[in-house]
Amino acid sequence: MGHNTLLSAILLAVTAFNASASTLFSTFPDAKYPEDKLVHFTPFNVITAIDGSNISVLPVSGKLTKHSFDLPNSYTLELVINNYLDQLKKLNAEILFQCQQEACGEPYELEAQLAPSITVDTKEPDAYVAAKLTGSSGDVYSIIYVSRRDWGSTNVQIVALEIIPEPLGLIEANPAFLQQAPTQVEIKDRRSEDEQGSADHPLLGRMPGSFISDYMQTNFTQVPVITGISAAGYQTQSLDAKVTRISYRMPRKYSMFEISRNYAAAANKLGAEAVFHCKGEACGDDAKLIRAMKLHQDDKEDEWQDYQLFKLSRPSGDVYFDIYAQGYYKGVPADTTVRVMELTALKDDRVVINLDALTEAISQSGKATLEGLLFDYDSDQMLPESKPVLEVLANYLKQHPTLDFYVVGHTDDKGDRNYNQSLSQRRAAAVIKQLTELYQIPASQLTAHGNGEYSPVASNANEAGQRLNRRVELVLRSDKK
């Protein structure tokens, strides 16, 4: 179809019409990549004058329909605009304003007025026409914006805005709701999913619907708590305490705020002193925070974390408890870990091993449990209280230089199996390192082995049995393999 017949192809009868950008004008015959957009109701600024950097607008509101397409570069701005102006004249439209290229002013200021309904090309020449028409149901504003693409095509954007009253009856209000008392979201009880042998601590209960995903209790250890954060990093305080650590999997229906506030309210009822609190990115990198607390826990999102530390005083020794809540993306709750730390002194009467007892045990059964070898919580760092046991062990090995041994680490069955095996291996290796470096025991005499949770000597269903299962043994070798 040639340009001479283009006018007849886009001619629209000058009768009453229901306007929209896709029906007010037919599409050019060579149009490519057509797109349509409908906005139910929106405000729109119709440009009515441009004087340098000053742009005058007529604010209107209504139903907006947009039609856009590309034309070959053989269509000039003038040809496209003149065709639309001719049709607007036949529709008895009132031309409110028109401009081309430099007369349209600064492109960025034009963009600020027309966005987001019309995309302004701030680098290429453009043309703009604003017209007012009278439709069967009221006034209609038509905006035509034409620009040259930097790759040579001509882009056309046509907006029709039908003036209609703002449709404010789309949502129905329910006054009866205001007469109802608030109801709580129903949350299913999931205690049946608790880890075997776990239980809530007597000091603090749980959020309804949560279940215990990880549980650990130890009679005496050193555990760090967060007492502050500065540019230099985390300030921690190391507590010598009996520790109960409980990780709860939280229902998704809770918010992080609700979890944090409920634990804070429980602490307030106990009369606990708030020592430290941080939330979100103010807690810093969550992976670093977890390491500073020596938690065995996955990191989630820095934005969704909350840490609280409280202190209680009692005659038999102070009690600290902290709560570390984490969330997934957009604050969906993940695990909340509660630690209760009851300050206590080391009971050193566990060290029953001596040289005679060690010699007899190896002679009779080929192995001996090294009672009194103590490690920092969840670590292969040996505590100073272990030195007497190391001295007895070193004396025995020096008296039997021709015998070879395994040093075997064991754990209870709490936590991940692979992690338990790794921890037991590292603890066995730490014992050998101390013996070789401090007491000059030949490294060839000893071999480290981590047996993890696979050889319990007592039931893991209670703390007493778990304590017995967390041990290091010296095992006689009959050969060197």
Structural account:
This protein folds into three domains: 3-163, no CATH class; 191-343, no CATH class; 348-477, 2-Layer Sandwich (60s Ribosomal Protein L30, Chain: A). Helix content is 22%, strand content 35%. It has helices at 6-10, 21-24, 77-90, 107-114, 256-269, 286-293, 355-365, 387-399, 417-439, 463-469; strands spanning 32-51, 54-71, 94-100, 126-135, 138-148, 154-163, 211-230, 233-249, 273-279, 305-312, 319-327, 333-343, 367-369, 404-409, 446-450, 472-477. The strands form three sheets. Strands 1-2-6-5-4-3 form a six-stranded antiparallel β-sheet. Helix 8 packs across helix 9. The longest helix has 23 residues, at 417-439. It is elongated, with a radius of gyration of 39 Å. It is found in: Cell outer membrane. Keywords: Cell outer membrane, Membrane, Signal. This is OmpA family protein.
State the helicity in percent bands: 10-25%
Q: State the major sheet.
A: 6 strands, antiparallel
Secondary-structure element order, N to C: HHEEHEHEEEEEHEHEEEHEHEHEHE
Distance between the termini: 92 Å
User: What is the radius of gyration computed over CA atoms, rounded to a whole number of angstroms?
Assistant: 39 Å
Integer count of domains: 3
| Broad structural category | alpha+beta
Strand order of the largest sheet: 1-2-6-5-4-3
Give the averaged pLDDT, no decimals: 87
- Which regions have little confidence, pLDDT < 50, spanning 5+ residues? 1-20
Shape: elongated
Protein name: OmpA family protein
Main location: membrane
Pfam families: OmpA
Organism: Shewanella electrica
